[in-house]
Amino acid sequence: ATCGHGCKYGECMGPNKCKCFPGFTGKTCNQDLNECGLKPRPCEHRCMNTHGSYKCYCLNGYMLMPDGRCASSRTCTMVNCQYGCEEVKGEVQCLCPSGGLQLGPNGRTCIDIDECSSGQALCSYNRRCINTFGSYYCKCQLGYELKYVSGHYDCVDVNECVTNTHTCNVHAECLNTEGSFKCKCKQGYRGTGFDC
């Protein structure tokens, strides 16, 4: 079984046939599956799609049960939580639907944790962290693009000189570098390479 384009979040099962891991879809398993859009819906009240998964949460006045259903709770109504609540040893606590969210100072609403600035994000050396509400993802550094090379996805240098995305002067030569490019004025011209 060989898959020319590779299977990003899955495994190769036959000639160019990918079997995606749960939570992913597409010919090369490179797309997140929006479980919240599936029928029947996985959550009774509200659903938040996440990368490769999803989270359920309830309307105010309801408690999230382990099976994703929402049970009416008089105590939750009184607390007025943004995303439902849970009762622990008779004490009511508001919930946040994702590990990338934390309870705000009022103990009722959820605020985003910026994993990129807090250092909680795990991105490989050639990728940069992009914060999202409740989570984050890793993107190739500027000057690099995601390509399928020798059996796996990797961030590969973009040759700006070949793709014609450089900003060199018409009287300058473009020289590709790792992650960037340089401009050098042609013979008989002088300047920075951006101005000759």
UniProtKB/TrEMBL annotation:
<dbReference type="GO" id="GO:0005509">
    <property type="term" value="F:calcium ion binding"/>
</dbReference>
<keyword id="KW-0272">Extracellular matrix</keyword>
<keyword id="KW-0964">Secreted</keyword>
<keyword id="KW-0732">Signal</keyword>
<feature type="domain" description="EGF-like">
    <location>
        <begin position="112"/>
        <end position="150"/>
    </location>
</feature>
<protein>
    <submittedName>
        <fullName>EGFL6 protein</fullName>
    </submittedName>
</protein>
<dbReference type="GO" id="GO:0007155">
    <property type="term" value="P:cell adhesion"/>
</dbReference>
<keyword id="KW-0217">Developmental protein</keyword>
<keyword id="KW-0245">EGF-like domain</keyword>
<dbReference type="InterPro" id="IPR009030">
    <property type="entry name" value="Growth_fac_rcpt_cys_sf"/>
</dbReference>
<dbReference type="InterPro" id="IPR018097">
    <property type="entry name" value="EGF_Ca-bd_CS"/>
</dbReference>
<dbReference type="Pfam" id="PF07645">
    <property type="entry name" value="EGF_CA"/>
</dbReference>
<keyword id="KW-0677">Repeat</keyword>
<dbReference type="GO" id="GO:0030154">
    <property type="term" value="P:cell differentiation"/>
</dbReference>
<dbReference type="InterPro" id="IPR000152">
    <property type="entry name" value="EGF-type_Asp/Asn_hydroxyl_site"/>
</dbReference>
<keyword id="KW-0130">Cell adhesion</keyword>
<keyword id="KW-1015">Disulfide bond</keyword>
<keyword id="KW-0106">Calcium</keyword>
<feature type="domain" description="EGF-like">
    <location>
        <begin position="157"/>
        <end position="195"/>
    </location>
</feature>
<feature type="domain" description="EGF-like">
    <location>
        <begin position="32"/>
        <end position="71"/>
    </location>
</feature>
<dbReference type="InterPro" id="IPR000742">
    <property type="entry name" value="EGF"/>
</dbReference>
<dbReference type="InterPro" id="IPR052235">
    <property type="entry name" value="Nephronectin_domain"/>
</dbReference>
<keyword id="KW-0221">Differentiation</keyword>
<comment type="similarity">
    <text>Belongs to the nephronectin family.</text>
</comment>
<dbReference type="InterPro" id="IPR049883">
    <property type="entry name" value="NOTCH1_EGF-like"/>
</dbReference>
<dbReference type="InterPro" id="IPR001881">
    <property type="entry name" value="EGF-like_Ca-bd_dom"/>
</dbReference>
